[in-house]
Amino acid sequence: MKDYIEERAVSIANYIIDNNATVRQTAKKFGISKSTVHKDVAERLLHINPSLARQARVVLDINKSERHIRGGMATKEKYLHQHG
């Protein structure tokens, strides 16, 4: 694997963990697709640093489980500003 891809995978995981970031936030920050974020964390990083991969996975799983709440809050905010 190319060194820069390995470095990116590690950087992505650290960013996710340090910022409690979502896949979407991470993809935007690194200028890559959401599927690349998933691939880096779920596959590439497992070969490089399994422990870091697991830590990042925990954050992503928590964020995934809470996304319906964030979506509802965003919708609520949107309508408060439009009609308030």
Describe this structure as you would to a colleague.
The structure is a single chain. It contains four helices and no strands. It is mainly alpha-helical and 84 residues long. Helix 1 (3-19) packs across helix 4, helix 2 (23-30) packs across helix 3 and helix 3 (34-48) runs antiparallel to helix 4 (50-83). The mean pLDDT is 90.
The helix-strand sequence is HHHH
Work out the oligomeric state of the chains in this entry. Answer: single chain
Proportion of helical residues: over 70%
Arithmetic mean of pLDDT: 90
Strand content: under 5%
**Would you tell me the structural class of the helices and strands?**
mainly alpha
Biggest beta sheet attributes: none
Distance between the ends: 53 Å
Helical region count?
4
Radius of gyration: 15 Å
What is the global morphology? elongated
Q: How many beta-strand elements?
A: 0
Unreliable spans? none
